[in-house]
Structure formats: C-alpha cells, structure tokens
Recover the amino acids of this structure.
C-alpha cells in the first residue's frame, strides 16, 4: 500500500475529507459525526485490503470476496461511443488493479469478443490477485451477435472454453447467464454450471435480469453467488419486483450494472450529446432521447445539489447511494478515464448517515423519470 509519512493514502484522503468538512459550516460537522455512527452500522464495509475495502458476494460455498467497487470493462470497446486505443485501455485497467480493484466485468457479447480479448490481454498477468467475470447467453456466431439467446448445455460448455481461451485463464472466477433463454429451463442451466464447477472450469456463477422465481429455481440446483441487474437512482425495479428481497433471503450478492445510468448521473451528458451511431446503444434507449435527457437533467441537478455541501460529485452520490443499500451490493461502474476511475473509487471515502440518504431519495422520487430504460425488444429479454 502507498504510504505518506506513516499514513496510508486512504487514511490521508479520509483525513483530508474530514478537515475539509471541518472548515465548512456547523451542519456539515454534525453530518460528519452522524456519518461516523453510520459507518459502524449494518452497511459498514467488511474488510480492507491493499487500501480498498472488500465485500462478499454470496454465502457458504458460493461466497466470493471482491473489492467493494468493481470495474465494468464493456465501454472500453463496446456501446459507449469512442474509446481510447488498446494501449491506453490496458494502462487504465492496470491503474485500477494498482488501486485495489479486484472485480472486472466483461461478456462474450461485448464487441462481440473484443472486450474479453482486451480483458485477457490486460488482466491475465494479475490472475492471482484479481477476478474477471464474464457472461454467456447471447448467441454469437463467427464473431457476430445474432440477437437470439442460446443457453443449451453444449453451447454453455463451448462458450466457457472460448472465454477461458480469450481471457487466458484455466478457470472462470464467475460465469453469468447474460439473458435467460426461453427454451432452456433455469434448472438445466444451473446443472450445466454445477458440472463445469466440478470440472474446475468455473468457480462461481450468477444470472442477469431474471425474476425472483427464476433465481429461486436456479439456486436450488446450484448456489448462486450474485445477480447482476440494472439498479441506480433512476431505475429501482429490483426493490419492488422481489429480486433484492430474494437475494437478501437466500444470501445471494447483487451487482448493479450501469450504476451511473450509463454515464447520465455523472452529469456529462446533455440533450446535445451525440452518441456514436455505430457503437453506442444509448441512442436506442427511450431515456436517452433529447427530450427525455432534458427532462431528466433535473434529477442530475438534485444529485449535484446534494453532493455540493458534502464535497461529492453526482457520480459519487449515485455510487454511494447503491453502496449504502446493503453490504452485499458491489457496483461495477465503467470508465475510459483515470480521473473518473479515481473519482468513482473515492466514493468509498464518504460515510453518510441513513437520514441523509433518505433525504436524497425523497428529493429524487419527487421527480418522475421520463422515458423507458429499454426499447420493446430489449425489455422483452428481461425479468424472465
Ligand atoms: N448484465 C448486463 O446486462 C449489463 C448491461 C450493461 C452493462 N453491464 C456492465 O456494467 C458495466 C457498467 O455499465 P455502463 O458502462 O453501462 O454504465 P455506467 O457504469 O453507469 O456508466 C458508464 C459511463 O459513465 C461515464 N462515467 C464513468 N464514471 C464517471 C464519472 N465519475 N463522471 C461522469 N461520467 C462517468 C463513462 O464515461 P467515461 O469513459 O468518459 O468515464 C461511461 O460512458 C459495464 O461495463 C458492464 O460490465 C452489464
């Protein structure tokens, strides 16, 4: 760990944040005191290694310890418009490892294949220290997505071998089903994964965007480590559709994807933002139409306003809100910039009291979100 005159970088940042708070007005001091109480509560971060707090996804044999914030690799090659060249992406991934990130998320469909290739090239050398999680389910033929789902046992096995080769690994830390295949029951998928685990090819498994009922059925056959679904201040379905409650009850972890709402809650997107027509799915999402962006900017303004007196950016408010929801939640923001990586990881240096988060929620709930998160075809593939 980096030392600064006997003080770790994290302690240094914490002290600096505390000093900063002390220089502001009295209510801010009260908030820091309240925050210290909250830090010892149920949602306190579990362990701290290499300067980065850790959390555990899943329980028992399915337990998987990872950094409290992961890194979504997708946008480095796929769906987030222009990205830096491969050398710069590899350097940024190494910076993330250096800062203690141990959970990196990719998928076969990202690219397709280019994202796994990048993750393999950049991260294989750290395989004893970090984990790369990947996903099967979307059918990919000759390097192209077909738009269909394929989770037949033989296909899962083939995709597992292909992912191992691209990621340059002997075993996958975690293999998620990306979207459910309506033709293959969850029990059959779970049994295939259980077999791959026996063979040592897969360590943990998870499912994305599935219903509470599917989670229960799959978990009975092979213990799930995590569910990965969209969850952030502008999309909270998992709070009401039984998914988070089922995870809590069964001891399954939760990995919120797109935790900054695909960059929107970071405040760098406005109605004039042009998304690359060849490499950005945001232009297909109703919530990213100019009129929706214009209306929903009021929500970003609330996060910015909330963060202003606490020294937090809106991205940090978005991530901090997720982290305080439960100690088994691990968000995976993606970025192509060192400054954003550092900003996102520094979220862990802020401890706010439960009533402060309630205050934020009340302000956000008062502003209805304009536009659906997915178009009809994408929506059809979730919640099965
Ligand atoms: N399971 C699934 O179905 C599924 C679906 C989607 C995504 N995912 C996973 O979730 C990961 C993250 O999702 P995502 O990329 O859709 O959304 P995200 O993490 O919410 O947002 C990423 C976007 O936010 C910007 N950003 C990051 N940090 C920022 C900050 N501090 N301030 C302002 N902007 C910031 C990034 O741009 P810069 O590059 O400019 O920082 C990037 O365009 C993906 O990499 C993928 O692994 C899974």
């Amino acid at each position: 760990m980096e030392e600064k005159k006997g003080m770790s970088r994290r302690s240094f940042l914490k002290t600096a944040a505390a000093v900063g708070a002390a220089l502001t007005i009295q209510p801010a001091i009260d908030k820091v005191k309240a925050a210290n109480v909250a830090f010892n509560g149920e949602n306190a971060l579990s362990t701290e290694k290499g300067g980065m707090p850790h959390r555990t996804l899943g329980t028992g044999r399915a337990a998987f310890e990872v950094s409290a914030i992961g890194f979504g690799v997708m946008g480095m090659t796929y769906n987030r418009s222009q990205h830096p060249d491969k050398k710069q992406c590899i350097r940024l991934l190494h910076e993330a490892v250096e800062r203690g990130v141990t959970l990196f998320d990719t998928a076969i469909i990202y690219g397709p294949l280019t994202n796994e290739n990048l993750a393999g090239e950049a991260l294989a050398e750290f395989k004893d220290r970090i984990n790369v999680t990947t996903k099967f389910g979307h059918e990919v033929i000759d390097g192209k997505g077909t738009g269909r789902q394929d989770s037949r046992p033989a296909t899962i096995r083939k995709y597992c071998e292909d992912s191992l080769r691209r990621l340059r690994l002997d075993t996958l830390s975690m293999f998620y089903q990306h979207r459910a295949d309506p033709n293959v029951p969850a029990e059959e998928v779970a049994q295939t994964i259980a077999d791959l685990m026996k063979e040592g090819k897969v360590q943990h498994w998870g499912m994305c965007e599935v219903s509470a009922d599917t989670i229960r059925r799959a978990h009975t056959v092979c213990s799930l480590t995590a569910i990965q679904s969209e969850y952030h201040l502008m999309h909270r379905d998992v709070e009401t559709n039984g998914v988070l409650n089922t995870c809590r009850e069964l001891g399954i972890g939760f990995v919120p994807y797109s935790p900054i709402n695909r960059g929107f809650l970071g405040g760098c997107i406005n109605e004039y933002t042009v998304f690359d027509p060849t490499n950005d799915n945001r232009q297909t999402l109703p919530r990213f139409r100019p009129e929706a962006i214009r209306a929903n900017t009021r929500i970003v303004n609330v996060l910015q306003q909330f963060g202003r007196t606490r020294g937090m950016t809106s991205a940090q408010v978005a991530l901090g809100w997720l982290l305080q929801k439960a100690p088994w939640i691990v968000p995976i923001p993606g970025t192509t910039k060192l400054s954003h990586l550092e900003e996102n990881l520094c979220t862990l240096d802020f401890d706010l009291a439960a009533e402060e988060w309630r205050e934020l929620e009340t302000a956000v709930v008062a502003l209805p979100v304009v536009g659906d998160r997915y178009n009809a075809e994408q929506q059809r593939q979730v919640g099965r």
